Amino acid sequence: MALRALPSGKTLARFYQQQIRGLQTFTLPDLAYDYGALEPAISGEIMQLHHQKHHQTYITNYNKALEQLHDAIAKGDASAVVKLQSAIKFNGGGSIFGFYIYLYPITLSPCNASIFAGHVNHSIFWKNLAPPREGGGEPPHGSLGWAIDQHFGSMEKLIAKMNAEGAAVQGSGWVWLAVDKELKRLVVETTANQDPLVTKGASLVPLVGIDVWEHAYYLQYKNVRPDYLKNIWKVINWKFASEVYAKECP
Ligand SMILES: [Fe+2]
């Protein structure tokens, strides 16, 4: 395999300018339900803090880092560009962003989901939840329910698998039910910190993502993550997951 010449500073600056041109700042999305509507599974206090403080902080830091990145690129400050990538990765989840893209040329657009993942992870999470009076916790019927039975044996076995894998995540992270849209099969994956699901496979589409950071449960469940995982299924929005699955596997 031929070796690539290292990029010059000007080439790199031009590359980054092209790559970030389409990036945008974000604002906190509204929830479709009240903070207290998921009780007793998840307390209103947790939901409010999680949404207004934690999610907002990711967005604020991401927007700030993006602005600083624009400035650093305009000034040709390569070391600042490299440093800012870690802030973008953590707050936005952009683990693919950076020299990787240069060395393995791909357009940015297919990676948008990964670059924005800290924000996107939480945006998906809010949609994955629904108050019980609005169908939260009602298991899926139709094609997703059938696929779960086929791949995992039963809904109970899927829940047991996700609870076990979610409880085993060291430190902070996520446990996902996803569909591999190319292989047309369901998978359970975990990701660390705010890494996006796409880091586990470019064709994976999240159906249900469960946040297992302590900030998602500690105020109510203290350090007993398995209890949080056991109860969150009472407010999982399977209607949303079914719609995504039907779109990806018509
Ligand atoms: Fe979170």
Automatic annotation (TrEMBL):
Reactions it catalyzes: 2 superoxide + 2 H(+) = H2O2 + O2
Enzyme nomenclature, EC number: 1.15.1.1
GO molecular function annotations of the record: manganese ion binding; superoxide dismutase activity
Top-level taxon: Eukaryota
Major location category of this protein: mitochondrion
EC category: oxidoreductase
Cofactor: Mn(2+)
Keywords: Manganese, Metal-binding, Mitochondrion, Oxidoreductase
Family matches, as Gene3D superfamilies: Fe,Mn superoxide dismutase (SOD) domain, Iron/manganese superoxide dismutase, C-terminal domain
Record SUPFAM superfamilies: Fe,Mn superoxide dismutase (SOD), C-terminal domain, Fe,Mn superoxide dismutase (SOD), N-terminal domain
Binding site for Mn(2+): H50, H122, D211, H215
InterPro entries named in the record: Fe/Mn_Superoxide_Dismutase, Mn/Fe_SOD, Mn/Fe_SOD_BS, Mn/Fe_SOD_C, Mn/Fe_SOD_N, Mn/Fe_SOD_N_sf, SOD_C_sf
Gene Ontology CC terms: mitochondrial matrix
Cellular location(s): Mitochondrion matrix
Domain Manganese/iron superoxide dismutase N-terminal, first and last residues per copy: 25-96
Segments forming domain Manganese/iron superoxide dismutase C-terminal: 141-243
Database matches in PANTHER family: SUPEROXIDE DISMUTASE 2 (PTHR11404), SUPEROXIDE DISMUTASE [MN], MITOCHONDRIAL (PTHR11404:SF6)
Subunit structure: Homotetramer.
Role noted for this protein: Destroys superoxide anion radicals which are normally produced within the cells and which are toxic to biological systems. Destroys radicals which are normally produced within the cells and which are toxic to biological systems.
Family: Belongs to the iron/manganese superoxide dismutase family.
Record-given protein name: Superoxide dismutase
Source organism (scientific name): Mikania micrantha (bitter vine)
